[in-house]
Design a protein that fits this description.
CATH class: Mainly Alpha
CATH superfamily: Winged helix-like DNA-binding domain superfamily/Winged helix DNA-binding domain
Keywords: DNA-binding, Transcription, Transcription regulation
Order of helices and strands: HHHHEEHH
Number of strands: 2
Helix content: 55-70%
Radius of gyration: 16 Å
GO molecular function, one term: DNA-binding transcription factor activity
Distance between the termini: 39 Å
Number of helices: 6
Protein name: Metalloregulator ArsR/SmtB family transcription factor
CATH topology: Arc Repressor Mutant, subunit A
Length: 114
């Protein structure tokens, strides 16, 4: 980790918490992974790729935009979405890898609470 003052470390940690909150939803992770493979996708294209209704995908895209992970641009009548950079996809892929390797044999959250 880069040397930081206590104040800058606190800001960085708060920012990381916001990133994880944004990614703590399966549809958003699917959208990020879809955009990594298919940059400049419309809401309809993303809805088809992630298997969710377009209005739900649109809401998740708005959240991803507010977080700074996704941008949109107009292409004629359509709005196209793309990742700001590869870091969001890297985080999503790292989380998937971690879950596959480290959480495979653990019971799911729902199984633990029953």
């Amino acid at each position: 980790m880069v040397q930081m003052t206590a104040e800058s470390e606190d800001r960085a940690i708060a920012g990381a918490v916001d990133v994880f909150r944004t990614l703590a939803e399966g549809t958003r992770i699917r959208i990020i992974l879809a955009l990594a493979q298919h940059p400049e996708s419309s809401v309809g294209q993303l809805a088809s790729r992630v298997g969710r209704p377009a209005p739900a995908v649109s809401q998740h895209l708005n959240r991803l935009q507010r977080s700074g992970m996704v941008r949109r641009q107009r292409d004629g009548q359509r709005m196209l979405y793309h990742l700001v950079d590869e870091h969001a996809a890297d985080l999503a892929n790292t989380a998937l890898h971690y879950a596959a390797v480290h959480l495979e044999d653990r019971p799911t959250h729902h199984a633990q609470t029953r």
